[in-house]
Write a structure and sequence with these properties.
Number of helices: 27
Helix content: 40-55%
Strand order of the largest sheet: 8-7-6-9-10-11
Number of strands: 18
Largest sheet: 6 strands, parallel
Shape: globular
Structural class: alpha/beta
Length: 657
Amino acid sequence: MAKSKELDIQAASICPSTIQMLEKATKDGVKISFHRANEMSACPIGAVSACCKNCSMGPCRLSPKDPYAKQGVCGATIDTISARNFARMVVAGAAAHTDHGMGMLDCFKEVVHGKVDGFRIKDERKLKEVCGYLEIPLTVEVDGEIKDREIMELGLELAGELEKTYTQVEGEIPFMKRVPEKTLERWRELGIVPRGAMRELMEMMHRTHIGVDQEYVNIARGFQRAALSDGWGGSMVATELSDILFGTPEPLAAYVDMGCLEEKSVNVVINGHEPIMFEAMIDAVNDPKLIEKAKAAGAEGIVLAGMCCSGAEVLARHGIPHAGNFMSTEALLVTGAVDAMAVDVQCIKQGLSPVAKCYDTPLFTTNYRAHIEGARHIQLDETNPRECVDEVVEEAIKRFQNRTKPVEIPQNKHIGIHGFTHENIKYHLGGTYRASYRPLNDAIISGRIRGIAGVVGCTNPRVKHDWVHTEVVKELVKNDVIVLMTGCATITIGKTGLLTPEGAAKFAGPGLAEVCETVGIPPVLSLGSCVDNSRILIAASGVLEEGGLGERLSDLPAAGSAPEWMSEKAISIGQYFVSSGVYTVFGAAFPATEGSKFKEHLFNGMEEEVGGKWDFAIDPYEHAAKMIAHIDKKREALGINTKQERKLFSMEDRRDL
């Protein structure tokens, strides 16, 4: 048997907690994803999407070095093959977010029909706000008198309207009403306004079947429509309904990293993406009866911590500590301190199961969509979620009482401010009575803030864990670019100090630091999970509506980034940002063949159509430099690429104004 390639642990990550657990796992003879990535080279043909397995005449492999030298058996060129593969990644990613959103809609319908014990509408203001966007009347005339409609009545009508996001076969999905006018006008001209997610995703799978759509520009139009059904559809529905049901986040201080676990307590970790199970678990770990059971077993209490995106949601919404991002999930089990891990859907590694077995950690799946070989399944019933989560807690208490493995918890935890939304950002900028994006727009126009960047996405063992995210964000804020973050990337930056107001003085350029100090915000704003990228879309639309920065989203001095992406969801996210008009840079790898017409279309042709385009850079400094150059290009086009001097206004000046 060939000897395993030795992992250079210091080169694998910059996260001290992950490095410590990698060293322990290596000593214990346990392999986690870093080891597996080290031993398995990426396929050079598949990495650049130069192969096709859509029928049994192949698989057909084209040469990345000379992509036009031959065609597939059916005659498909590299452009058709790459476009089909890219489209299927968009569809898979959009389907993941769309199904998440539909799950939230199903739960919401159960609540407004009064069938759920444990959940209720917590944010009535947000419910009314969303109804207002969708032109659902908030009042009704009764006997000549105007009265407010009942909350549950509004909820029922909202549920019916949002269901069109998924099931509608003609027309435009409901949240198209939130898209800036000129941007929507262009989508209509191109024929890429989504009709309904189910139709768009089904049609795109049909079009990428052998012998159907074989023209890369036309395929690209189709997958743009599918991606938009995610960003302005499924994802937006998930975020808005989560806020309505569980409360809209407000900025709060919370901790990230593995030091959130406690050796003398029962540690329960939730890993996944849908907030329903996690919200029920919050109630369970705070139940006096279960706390008493834990103490009777010798524990000081019960600690609840999150992983991945469901963790990012409750971090932002409730301040529940977050133990680590995607690449840290297996490493956390190596602590020996996790008494139970419960998972739902998305970004759950099958490798968790053997690692959990090595450390005698009970691993539970809770969603019928996602079972794992070797894990125990306890189906969560949304009408009675406590039955599932209470059992998980009781099993965790048993494991604590019978711990056999040594416990080693990295003593690292970092405080940061989480829970920013497009609503409360306006409040922080303008206060209670003048909440608006005007101060932000003025700061951009004056040059104090150079522009806006959205940095999102996963972590990936093909690049140094956490390092690329960290360096990209540091470069951006150093150059006066304010950063909005979601998902696993946020947890990375939570370890740096950039999520505190004090971080502005340490890391930000003079203009951004001045604004942050004045307003009292960090230079990097944490907005929640990856599905919450819809918050960035709405914030960008609000900035545009405020005026002074163009007419289309593509006019804004803004850029998007996913430096360590790894999932198909990231491709869907990137595409809906590009189609919305945002220049978007990816790192790690890019699934298109160099020198192909299709890649040229993604990197340049799309800009002519929708105003946004893709780009790629692995090196974090090149990555950030490309974003900054694009922001400067947009500032130049707007005529604001010179920093304006501050002027002290006299009373006479004010009267003239």
